[in-house]
Amino acid sequence: MRNAIPYGRQNIEQDDIDAVVKTLTADFLTQGPKVKEFEDKFAAYNGAKYAVAVNNATSGLHLAVLALGLKEGERVITTPITFVASANCVRYAGGEVWFADIDPDTYLLSLESTKKLIESKPKGFFKGIIPVDFAGLPVDLEAFKSLAQEHDLWIIEDACHAPGSYFKDSKGETQMCGNGAYADIGIFSFHPVKHIACGEGGMLTTNSEELFKKLSLLRTHGITKENMAEDHGGWFYEMQELGYNYRLTDIQSALGITQLAKNKVGVARRNVIAKKYKKAFIGKIKFQSLPEGNLNAHHLFVIEVEDRKGLYDFLRTQNIFAQIHYIPVHTMPYYKEIGYDTAHLTCAENYYSKCISLPMYPSLTDEEQDFVIEKVTSFING
Ligand SMILES: *Cc1c(COP(=O)(O)O)cnc(C)c1O
Questions:
Q1: Residue 137 near residue 108 (C-beta atoms within 8 A)
Q2: Ligand 1: which of 54, 55, 58 to mutate, judged by most atoms within 8 Å of the beta carbon?
Q3: For 143-174, how does the pLDDT look when each residue is reduced to its tens digit (9 = 90+)?
Q4: CATH number of the CATH domain containing 229
């Protein structure tokens, strides 16, 4: 029997191991120089001014809504086709989550659906939008930004799937995901199924010095030695806000640094894999579309098939562990119960009935991919 083929897998090599081991005997296991080095390198990688490392992206999303000032009862729009954390962060702050529908071809939050939802309510009804670069495909944030400006909304870009992705703006300029050009804050995850594996971990990015300072303060208990009202001596600090301990360790940061250095090659390999899937499926099986000029970092490779459960079960008998991304968030019991509105999200629900994510990770071999393609194709052909 061949080895199991999962839908995603981390890629840890000797240099990653060496970096972690070296940090274990260094002076700092946490709050040391590796964290800052990782932040600086990450910010430089995607062209953002500031980066703040956190213990996971869920914490990062929580800090993002707090830094943007979300208060109890305030409303935020996100996509139903995402991991629950994109929505949950709003609930942590006591806010309401509203869902707009997805585009049936890109699977991303639909600009038209978002616009319609916003315009169906009085001015000031919503505070922000959290679009998600789903599967690694960048949201057109330039378009979302003009909508957001018109209605005085902030934007958090959930770029957990998309380190290294970019889109071309209306001037033809390349905009890296999470570069802060159009969104107020970007967020990335370093969970092992994502591109950069730290075990757990996340990174916030922003171009705003004010947001950077707020995020940094909230990440570490709201404690600071800056801008203090009093100063009793070298030991003195102030807790200026109610913050959290959402810090990333130096051990994880050391791993993040070596992982980040491989991301470009990893994304290129993922795109080679995507190209091969597309070549095999074109005209037969629907897959996520790629708008002109965009790079999809391909956290996932999603196809749509009529008998999704049949294919999922069949692939498991072949030791291929495809996965479903995602069960629409608005259909989760928790969100159904607190539903603020009866959500009519036809495209999201139709997508969910057919979607399945095929194996996609840099170390997937050509032979393994051929096997996956052969099994999918033979199932589709009956
Ligand atoms: C993985 C993921 C998260 C949460 O990341 P963690 O680091 O596991 O907290 C949030 N949003 C999206 C879209 C994700 O895929």
A1: yes
A2: 58
A3: 999 999 999 999 999 999 999 999 999 999 99
A4: 3.40.640.10
